[in-house]
Design a protein that fits this description.
By secondary structure, the protein is of the alpha/beta class. The protein has 15 helices and 15 strands. The strands form three sheets. Strands 3-4-2-1-5-6 form a six-stranded parallel β-sheet, with helices on both faces.
């Protein structure tokens, strides 16, 4: 995967056009029914403002939650209210997603104004990428922008069907930033290139491991998945998370890494407890976990070693917390890793964090502005690290003269 080669809104002649924009407004709602965290709405503002300033009429579309049909409790009304406040201008909420009334509103929309469609998932045609539904959506705009990186790994009507029918189809600023950051580390990483992997299960990360192996110089392993590696090397792991059917895979992965000269460091020590839910911790060697205990975090020696081994990096990709960081007593290793990445960034490394829980961990450590890039797209960033083509990205136009 090379550098970013898609056309963006800077390539778009937006003046006087009705531009249909896929955004990710899948935000949490509080008990009062209002938006409780508007991070995702704020993240889309640069694209929306840019189009408005260029003299476009902006038609926004997003999903919210997982309604299977029209459901007032999943209405985008609270999102329209918050967006209106952020833009300091009225945002019209369409009464539906498609249909004659929506078409009329879109066609009457003056330049410099915003219309928000209702929840895309009110129609099963969205997730089914239904041709007729995609055609109805496409007819609402004269150009298409995708700024929803978080759904780019899904071939839905709004992410794949519409850009197949409505041209030009270009990337918004948020989409561009994500693809630039993720693409450049996988394409031309400054060395040494270090991957840090953790999280719960090895099975969810096999493709990430396989895709990164030929590119990296060093791999640091923590989290629940470390115990499958410890087991593969013959250690005692007590009641720690184990995927017995993955031990062979871990063995062959270690052999492949050795063959390629990739240094693999599994946490040498860990913190153990009686329960994954909380309680007192004890530090033990990672291959000597007592029978009645389970590993809940990497240990202090691992924290020091891992810190050391990311500080000299040119590039670091991190996915998966080092321990059960949601429990404060088990968060030490994950927070230490977040701070080590911030320190590496200060020393000139490019540091990129992918995965929903990992992004939350970086935020919990308070260092999200001290690393190069924290991806907003949990599943999408993982699929990118797996080396997959994201359908929502593939559907966008290539930049003119942008190469192969
Ligand atoms: P991401 O969302 O960043 O891709 P994952 O979803 O793969 O990360 O992993 C996050 C989960 O891994 C967290 O819920 C965390 O509690 C869990 N986890 C980390 N270490 C352990 C461990 N030692 N045992 C069990 N679960 C763990
Ligand atoms: Mg997760």
């Amino acid at each position: 995967m090379g550098a970013f080669d898609k056309a963006t809104i800077r390539d778009l002649d937006a003046a006087g056009k009705r531009v249909l924009v896929r955004v990710d407004f899948n935000v949490p709602l509080g008990p009062d029914g209002e938006v409780s965290d508007d991070t995702r709405i704020v993240a889309a503002l640069p694209t929306i403002r840019y189009l408005l300033e260029k003299g476009a009429a902006v038609v926004l579309m997003s999903h919210l939650g997982r309604p299977k049909k029209k459901d007032p409790s999943a209405s985008l009304a609270p999102v329209a209210r918050r967006l209106s406040r952020l833009l300091r201008d009225e945002v019209t909420l369409a009464p539906d997603v498609v249909g004659p009334e929506v078409t009329r509103l879109a066609e009457a929309l003056p330049r410099g104004k915003v219309l928000l469609l209702e929840n895309l998932r009110f129609y099963p045609g969205e997730e089914a990428n239904d041709a007729e539904f995609a055609g109805q959506l496409a007819a609402l705009g004269q150009a298409y922008v995708n700024d929803a990186f978080g759904t780019a790994h899904r071939a839905h009507a709004s992410t794949e069907g519409v850009p197949a029918r409505l041209k030009p189809a270009v990337a918004g600023f948020l989409m561009q930033k994500e693809l630039d950051a993720l693409g450049s580390v996988l394409g031309t990483p400054a060395r040494p290139f270090v991957a840090v992997l953790g999280g719960a299960k090895i099975s969810g990360k096999i493709d990430v491991l396989e895709n990164l192996l030929p590119k990296i110089d060093r791999l640091l392993v923590g989290g629940g998945m470390m115990f499958t590696f410890v087991k593969a090397r013959g250690g005692a792991i007590g009641k720690s998370l184990l995927e017995a059917d993955r031990v062979e895979m871990a063995k062959s992965f270690l052999a492949k890494a050795a063959e390629r000269g990739v240094e693999v460091l599994v946490a040498p020590d860990c913190r153990v407890a009686d329960s994954p839910k909380g309680g007192a911790v004890q530090v033990v060697s990672a291959d000597r976990v007592p029978e009645d205990k389970l590993g809940v975090d990497i240990g202090p020696e691992a924290e020091k070693l891992f810190r050391d081994r990311v500080l000299d990096a040119g590039t670091v990709v991190w996915n998966g917390p080092m321990g059960i960081f949601e429990v404060p007593e088990f968060a030490s290793g994950t927070l230490a890793m977040a701070h080590a990445l911030a320190e590496a960034t200060k020393r000139g490394a490019k540091t990129v964090i992918g995965g929903g829980d990992s992004a939350a961990a970086v935020a919990a450590a308070g260092v999200e502005t001290q690393v190069t890039h924290v991806s907003t797209g949990g599943g999408a960033s993982l699929e990118f690290l797996e080396g997959r083509v994201l359908p929502g990205v593939a559907a966008l136009d290539r930049r003119a003269g942008g190469g192969a």
